Amino acid sequence: MDRVVDAPELSGVRGTLGKKAVTALARSVIAEARSAALAGGSPATLAEVVTRVRERAEARLRAGLTPVINATGVILHTNLGRAPLPKASIERIAATAGGYSTLELDLSTGVRTRRGVHAELGLAELVGAGDVVLVNNNAAAVMLALSTLAAGREVIVSRGELVEIGGGFRIPDVLARSGARLVEVGTTNRTRVDDYARAIGERTACLLRVHPSNFKISGFAERPALSELASLAQSRRIPLVKDLGGGLVVDLPASVADSELAREPSVQACLRAGADLVCFSLDKLFGGPQAGAVAGRAELVKALRDDPMARALRLDKLALAAVEAVLDAYRRGALSEIPVHALLAASLDGLARRVDEWRAALGELGAASETVQSEGAIGGGTLAEAPVASVALRITGRPPEILAERLRSGSPAVIGRVVDGALLLDARSVFPEEDRLIVAALRRALAE
Ligand SMILES: *Cc1c(COP(=O)(O)O)cnc(C)c1O
């Protein structure tokens, strides 16, 4: 045991993982070697045991959060961390993280202020809402809205919207946890305003409308416009809550004009249509950190903010710092500084030129590759199905799974996708600054 743990080959991992963790790994590797030998296998040598311990230790070190190059073409990839942050957000996080800040203090008066007030006012101004409350994510936003407005009462939802957004976020379950009772109306494919109108009673707390972020009901289908539901809600004096998800706050660039994404409603459009509260993510099309917002009528937002649950769901100071910097960029109209918008705005010609350059830089190694049209996606549960035109490097002549695995285990790891027996590396979600790295990673993987 001591000879394994103290082996010179393990000095590196002893330094990074710590001797205790290396000892634990050594114990399990030795136990495995012993049972393999007892079962009739040949006994492992000291060198073999040490190598196995080192491999496991290195795998453990790689297992934490590590930057990757996203060549999947999916801009808001939930598994890869959704929206990359603007440089200004990163700088503001760095400036706030290591010391003290004005998180709950007004410097001009020296008096305590409400946490997040600056970002909340800025966001309310941007989307044209009476007020905004910021929470940990959109799931928290929906939960807070429903539990504040509707605990112990009824929420009316169309049967076509009793959906799962992903990661266990199922509308009926969220409603149940908020303490509200679900009243289903209409059918899976068709729901009319009258269906809602008939279900409204004295126990009704609100109407809930869920945006079809990751699914589509087509064919013999119908649902009222948001503005029609808003008129009904207003005439019966109950609030209309919209779970929007996407968090779009500007017009999308011409590059996606003919895609389905062009029909993604903005937060402003939902408020103008008459929704009393709109819940959305800030790490989807808004392009910020993980956070959720509820925007809408001031007295309703205030009720949410004053609910004890808001304290449990509140946003941390680093995310707030990041949100403030994104808001600055929107105020200045500097969309190109927000990575999600920069990636979406890239022209197909520009992407094709870059992929050609990747191939040229690979020389002989890139012989079995071509530049192809591909379909990226916005992803992130935000019209996940809506394709965004893109360009990819398509590599043939190698088993694609093996190549994909080699690229994943490199540093930085490159994540592509295997389609029709070839590996596709999509340029839509790759930053131009990463071109050099992707070429180097490909060189290593193809040369092996
Ligand atoms: C993405 C999404 C959610 C979940 O938002 P998170 O920020 O991931 O918690 C909820 N509802 C809709 C409609 C969404 O698109």
What does this entry look like structurally?
- The chain folds into three domains: 2-62, no CATH class; 68-81 and 341-447, Aspartate Aminotransferase, domain 1 (Alpha-Beta Complex), CATH 3.90.1150; 87-334, 3-Layer(aba) Sandwich (Aspartate Aminotransferase, domain 2).
- It contains 18 helices and 18 strands.
- The chain has helices spanning 2-5, 11-17, 19-38, 46-62, 87-97, 117-127, 138-150, 171-177, 193-199, 226-235, 267-272, 298-306, 308-312, 317-331, 339-345, 348-362, 400-409, 435-447, and strands at 68-70, 74-76, 105-106, 111-112, 131-135, 154-158, 164-166, 169-170, 181-185, 204-210, 240-245, 277-281, 292-296, 369-379, 387-395, 413-415, 417-419, 422-426.
- The strands form five sheets. The protein has a seven-stranded mixed β-sheet with strand order 5-13-12-11-10-6-9, with helices on both faces.
- Helix 6 runs parallel beside helix 14 (317-331).
- The longest helix has 20 residues, at 19-38.
- The mean pLDDT is 93.
- Pyridoxal-5'-phosphate is lined by residues 137-139, 165, 169, 210-211, 213, 243, 245-246, 281, 292, 381-382.
